[in-house]
Amino acid sequence: MTDFGGALKKLSGNNKFKLAVIGVPFDEKSSYRRGAAFGPEAVRRISTGKCYNPDTELGVDLAEETVLVDLGDVDTSGDVLKTFAAVEEKVLEIINFGAIPIILGGDHSITYPVVKAMARKYRPLDLLHLDAHPDMYDELYGDRLSHACPMARILEEGLVQNLVQVGIRATTPEMRAMAEKYGVQTIEARNFPEKLSLEFKNPLFISVDLDVFDPAYAPGVSHHEPGGLTSRQVIDLVHNLKATIVGFDLVELNPQRDVSEMTAALAFKLLKEIAGKVVRP
């Protein structure tokens, strides 16, 4: 039973939902291991109310204080450009409805069309990016739409005013130069403060690549990068945010590498906690 801890409401014609989940089962832009296309299904499978409740750590009851629906998956059967266009239009449809999109990936390339949609509605827009990697290659193996490149595309198109990257621990001189060029604030994993409280003045989109976590907490990712953040550090970061969150994604879950569905469970935990901050900032 997939019901997001009992918080999920049935979609009906007069259902004025406030939070909408969509899946993007797409991993064609993965540079190493495939498998992230199975991420949305894995999060839905683990989220059963037989195991989890709809209450967040900060006391928000997602079943009573909001209306969460699942709009299914974006059609990714076409070519890459068609898939990206479909993602952008579906996200725009949700925000034009007045709801908050929750996007389950999929590899990290999908964040580019997602943020394109967000920027069509929200200007200026801020972006909080949690990841082991900056994802700011101009191109990787000749591919400018690789999952290693979405932040480069977002920055060069001016889609966000402020980009803050947290958990970085696998960068290059090229990406450091791009961060400096565009004024990106980088909080590397090795410098992660004991209590991090970030404040954003503009509407905020959050992009979480699950390899921001140390592999001990999230083995179900394609790129294991030791030395990462703990689940407690990231959850506390979410709890301490001072921002108006207008959407978020959870990407790079690779169930084929997961152990006992640990990473899928962590992704669902983050979904609940970020959704709770949307409901009660």
Structure description:
The chain has 281 residues and is α/β, with parallel strands linked by helices. The chain has a single domain, classed as 3-Layer(aba) Sandwich (Arginase, Chain A). It is 28% helix and 17% strand. The protein has helices at residues 39-46, 80-96, 111-121, 150-156, 173-182, 231-239, 262-279, and strands at residues 19-24, 68-73, 100-105, 126-130, 162-168, 185-188, 204-209, 245-251. An eight-stranded parallel beta sheet has the order 2-1-3-8-7-4-5-6, sandwiched between helices. α6 links the parallel β7 and β8 (245-251). α1 (39-46) packs across α7 (262-279), α3 (111-121) packs parallel to α4 (150-156) and α6 runs parallel beside α7. The model has no long low-confidence stretch (mean pLDDT 96).
Architecture per CATH nomenclature, i.e. the level-2 architecture: 3-Layer(aba) Sandwich
Number of strands: 8
Q: In total, how many domains does the architecture comprise?
A: 1
Q: What is the helix/strand order?
A: EHEHEHEHEHEEHEH
CATH homologous superfamily heading: Ureohydrolase domain
Distance from first to last alpha carbon: 29 Å
The CATH topology is given as Arginase, Chain A
| Helical coverage, percent range | 25-40%
Write out the strand line-up for the largest beta sheet, numbering strands in chain order: 2-1-3-8-7-4-5-6
The largest sheet is:
8 strands, parallel
Could you tell me the strand content as a percent range?
Answer: 15-25%
List unreliable stretches of 5+ residues.
none
Cα-atom Rg, whole angstroms? Answer: 17 Å
Class by alpha and beta content: alpha/beta
Global morphology: globular
Helix tally equals: 7
* CATH secondary-structure class: Alpha Beta
User: For the residues shown, what is the average pLDDT?
Assistant: 96
